[in-house]
């Protein structure tokens, strides 16, 4: 670092760099100075803790391997003691397992050395946009309900908004997966950027590559001009891939490369172009089951499923129905004019006893219909049509599949068993020994099944 650069060092110090290699510390310090940011440096976990106790920083960049510990210890320490401080892990020993662990512990991002200057700039820029404390939910995008399941979901959304990890939102149709994706985007560092939702099941397979990555003029019949894709449209923001399980296998390969390389190649172009996009995805389908059936790529599954957010169906949070109903009736009244209608006690009891296979969307439709048909200001039980439509019953509870001794099947291998095993592997990040323990079977039994299904 030159003398002039040191002399022009900003007065305020925003970043703490933790790395045991002096040349790396200097390189990062120089890069940050060129962004107008001064930094302190520490060579280990203990020194970093001392620095953090002495000064308030806006960002911490830490190496993974340190002489007196590792970067994950520092991530845990910051989450426990300085929860508003974003911390990113930079390492030369990156692996998907370590990245997942870091992100689950609360790291803002995880990048591997050598760090490109452009990637470092993007990381720092996004991190410094984070509010020091959890921001209030954007107007009109609040989650309605205070059941324990929803309170837990609300807390998870607040945490996930503060990092860059891909999130897979799993939930039945009508549970509000896109609303949750918008909240994660709106509360995060990319809130000023675009939020681009795309329903993967609604795009023609023939046009999907062009829609996602864009195309060049003349690349195919009808390509009369250059066109940007949805990835480029979401640059600096969030791309929400709804119903990602509907992607054809051929497109899954290209999506995987785009996510891994953070770059896309438009149809007809000769080179890739970088894109700075956070990926959120959702599906009402069980992706692990699609993987087992060979309908979804396992590598893409792990790439988009770094963190899973489960949205509970409405039947698991029936205590939220009165609050939801009040909100929906107020919205209907605002749209149509007049005072909001009320639910009679018997109508409310009927709603709370209903299974709601269509979830919140079904509740909205029921109340809109009741408002249209009822006479007076109070909606009675007779005004609500709770007859479930054929084929829309809630899914049955999962059954436990028997596991035979000695690794042999006790009968036909059921889909339920395969689903149960894949779920256990997913929960342990494919640590087979841990998954076998959780399943109550031997490692040999587990390997036997994986080999039989072509997953070993």
From TrEMBL:
Comp. bias intervals (Acidic residues): 406-415
Ranges for domain Sigma-54 factor interaction: 143-372
Cross-referenced Pfam families: AAA_lid_14 (PF25601), HTH_8 (PF02954), Response_reg (PF00072), Sigma54_activat (PF00158)
Top-level taxonomic group: Bacteria
Residue ranges the record marks as coiled coil: none
Record PTM 4-aspartylphosphate, positions in chain: 63
Entry keywords, A to Z: ATP-binding, Nucleotide-binding, Phosphoprotein, Transcription, Transcription regulation
Residue numbers spanned by region Disordered: 386-417
InterPro entries xref list: AAA+_ATPase, AAA_lid_NorR, CheY-like_superfamily, Homeodomain-like_sf, HTH_Fis, P-loop_NTPase, Sig_transdc_resp-reg_receiver, Sigma_54_int
Gene3D superfamilies according to UniProt: 1.10.8.60, 3.40.50.2300, Homeodomain-like (1.10.10.60), P-loop containing nucleotide triphosphate hydrolases (3.40.50.300)
Keyword Nucleotide-binding (UniProt): yes
Domain Response regulatory: 14-128
SMART domains: AAA, REC
Protein name: Sigma-54-dependent transcriptional regulator
The species this protein was found in: Thauera sinica
């Amino acid at each position: 670092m030159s003398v002039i650069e040191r002399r022009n060092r900003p007065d305020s110090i925003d970043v703490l760099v933790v790395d045991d290699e002096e040349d790396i510390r200097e390189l990062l310090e120089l890069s940050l100075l060129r962004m107008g940011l001064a930094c302190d440096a520490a060579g280990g976990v203990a020194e970093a803790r001392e620095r953090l106790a002495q000064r308030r920083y806006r960002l911490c960049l830490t190496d993974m391997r340190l002489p007196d510990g590792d970067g994950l210890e520092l991530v845990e320490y910051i989450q426990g003691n300085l929860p508003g401080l974003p911390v990113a892990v930079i390492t030369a020993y990156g692996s998907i397992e370590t990245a997942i662990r870091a992100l689950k512990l609360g790291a803002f991002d995880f990048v591997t050395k050598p760090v490109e200057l452009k990637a470092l700039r993007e990381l720092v820029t996004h991190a410094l946009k984070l509010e020091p404390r959890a921001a209030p939910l954007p107007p009109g995008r609040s989650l309605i309900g205070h059941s324990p399941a929803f309170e837990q979901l609300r807390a998870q959304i607040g945490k996930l908004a503060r990092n860059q990890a891909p999130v897979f939102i799993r939930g039945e149709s009508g549970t509000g997966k896109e609303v949750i994706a918008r909240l994660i985007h709106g509360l995060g560092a990319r809130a000023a950027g675009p939020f681009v939702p795309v329903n993967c099941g609604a795009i023609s397979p023939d046009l999907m590559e062009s829609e996602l990555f864009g195309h060049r003029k003349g690349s195919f019949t009808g390509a009369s001009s250059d066109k940007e894709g949805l990835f480029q449209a979401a640059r600096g923001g969030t791309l929400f891939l709804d119903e990602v399980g509907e992607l054809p296998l051929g497109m899954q390969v290209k999506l995987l490369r785009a996510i891994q390389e953070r770059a896309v190649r438009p149809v007809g172009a000769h080179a890739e172009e970088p894109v700075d996009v956070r990926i959120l995805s959702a599906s009402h389908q069980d992706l692990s089951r699609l993987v087992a059936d060979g309908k979804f790529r396992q590598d893409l599954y792990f790439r988009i499923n770094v963190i899973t957010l489960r949205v509970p169906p409405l039947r698991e949070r029936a205590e939220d129905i009165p609050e939801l109903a009040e909100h929906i009736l107020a919205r209907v009244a605002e749209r149509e004019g007049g005072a909001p209608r009320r639910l009679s006690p018997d109508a409310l009891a009927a709603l709370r006893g209903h299974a709601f296979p269509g979830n919140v969307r079904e509740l909205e439709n029921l109340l809109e219909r009741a408002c249209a048909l009822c006479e007076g200001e109070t909606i009675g039980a007779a005004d609500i049509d709770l007859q479930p439509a054929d084929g829309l019953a809630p899914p049955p509870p999962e059954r436990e599949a028997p596991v035979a001794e000695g690794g042999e099947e006790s009968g036909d291998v059921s889909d339920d068993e395969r689903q149960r095993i894949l779920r256990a592997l997913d929960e342990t990040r494919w640590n087979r020994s841990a998954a076998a323990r959780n399943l109550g079977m031997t490692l040999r039994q587990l390997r036997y099944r994986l080999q039989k299904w072509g997953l070993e």
